[in-house]
Amino acid sequence: MFRLLGMSLVGMTLAGCGGGGAAGPTQPVGVLTSLEVSPASVLLVEGGTVQLTVTPMDQAGKVLQELPAASFSSSDSAVASVAPNGLVSALQAGVASIQVSLSADGVTKSTTVSVTVTRGSLPGGSVVTTVGVTFNPASIAIPMGDSVSWRFQGAVHNVTFSGAAPPGGNIPDQQVGAVVSRTFSSAGTYPYECTIHSGMSGEVVVTSAAPAVYSALLVSPSTPSLELGQSVTLTATPLDQHGSAMSGLPAATWQSSDPSIATVTSSGVVDAVAAGTVDIVATLTAAGVSHTDAATVTVLSQQPGSATVTTPNRTFSPPSVVIPPGGTVIWQFSQSTHNVTFAGSAPPGGSIPDQSPGNSVSRTFPTEGTYAYACTLHTGMTGTVSVQAGPPPPPPPGLVVTAAQAAFTPDRVEVAPGETVTWLFSDDIYNVTFTGPAPPGGNIPDANPGSSVSRTFPASGDYDYECTLHPGMGGRIRVR
After folding, report:
1. Rounded to an integer, what distance in angstroms lies between the CA atom of residue 135 and that of residue 200?
2. Within 10 A of 240 (CB to CB), how many other CB atoms are there?
3. What does pTM read for this prediction?
4. Where does residue 279 rank: exposed (0-12), middle (13-18), buried (19+ CB within 10 A)?
5. E-only strand ranges, 79-210
6. Mean pLDDT per 10-residue interval, the chain, length 480 residues
């Protein structure tokens, strides 16, 4: 018997029968009226899958509970098969219909889902896939009237436009295997993001049939910071009336508002000369039209104990720096968007929000302590700043094994009997737990970032070890 709001049909009928006193009004019985299936249509490449979700509805448009499970069947199982739980698998190119049926208390409702399977690529324009927590490609250019298909894989994602949107608007949360398209009927730049995953963004650039008109100039990075003697290369990008980059135009000319602070070459290379702030202005003239834009460059005075951290290959390099109280750390961001998010104690100014490639941001650390941080956009991208008074500690004795990013480096070393190995714990809490023979002193318990612990190996043998905090993180000391 159907259930609506926890009440059965029998219970409702008895409440309305004669007996002591008048019966109150009864609620209408929920009757299975329709099935809603999501997604309503499916576009997959061979080998792809998508999970169908079935929602039974009553005559008032309310969801019915406690009904039997729906059944599924495919009109062409050679093209697309469907499992009893509604998981559709694309087998070969073609079109198939998935019939969805649900029966309860003598009432049966059915609906169909159209499944189109393509071989290798998707029809109807360009394709953007979700790789990890990125859109690939992040920027795509299409002519006006063309379509973009988003193929969702790896996790649940959405496409939320931050400004103008194409017909059909935003794409709500999609399960793995779903493919959703949008046709762009107007020229312009359409930035978007997945609101589930921070920093996951992209854009669609739609070009019109009309000739591109040089309309603006964009200088990047816009706010770099430099230490004395450092340099940064600025780029000046001409934009058309839709905000799209143009090519084939003359090169921009460059000028520094104060060459005593920073100079700039004809190709946009800025050299830091003295502490201060300066505007580096680019001008580009084409077809009698000129536009300018500027970058504000900050040159930091050289301070004892300052350090610079770069971001190659989604890592912080070096992952751990040591500075005195009052020292400064500069993060120079490259290759992709990154941030610096402190996990506990933070310096004045706090965490550094998402920064575009080329930008530089600094923080000064007045107080002693260990400051652990991470880029929340990239898993495993971590680092530490150790603020210590007095001279830096002496280098550890003997051979050094670094524990960073859940790995020992090097993970295989050979030493002579009587030599010492020091483990330097860089960006997280680690331990060294021997799984067989152990040297004098035994295992190294959990150690905080920035610390180092040594063991001397007097006897020959193979000493295998692991960090029990990070699965798969291990190494070996061979004493010969």
Report:
1. 7
2. 20
3. 0.38
4. middle
5. 80-82, 87-90, 94-104, 107-118, 126-131, 134-136, 139-143, 147-151, 157-161, 171-174, 179-183, 188-193, 201-207
6. 38 39 56 84 69 85 87 88 87 83 89 75 67 84 85 88 89 86 87 90 82 86 77 87 81 94 92 88 93 88 71 84 87 84 91 84 89 89 87 65 86 90 83 93 84 88 93 92
